[in-house]
From TrEMBL:
Keywords: Flavoprotein, FMN
Protein name per its UniProtKB record: Sulfite reductase [NADPH] flavoprotein alpha-component
GO MF annotation terms: flavin adenine dinucleotide binding; FMN binding; oxidoreductase activity
GO cellular component assignments: cytosol
Entry keyword rRNA-binding: no
Length: 73
């Protein structure tokens, strides 16, 4: 499951995001995409040392920059 891989490699994923990486999520909206979003929130919070509000703001910035995009069904 992608969310488990994200958490296992949280520091590396966060470093990529800090370097300008884009994250694309495609697939099941009800489970997988929701779980990936929660994992991304956890990755950002842990790797950056942010609280929930800070992680939420970081993810919203990724969305605004079109660096976190979802194509889900």
């Amino acid at each position: 499951m992608p969310q488990h891989r994200m958490l296992a490699h949280a520091a590396e994923l966060y470093a990529w995001l800090q370097q300008g990486a884009h994250l694309y999520v495609c697939g099941d909206a009800d489970r997988m995409a929701r779980d990936v979003h929660c994992a991304l929130h956890e990755v950002v919070a842990l790797a950056a040392g942010l609280d929930d509000d800070g992680a939420h703001a970081y993810i919203n910035d990724l969305i605004a920059q079109r660096r976190y995009l979802c194509d889900v069904y």
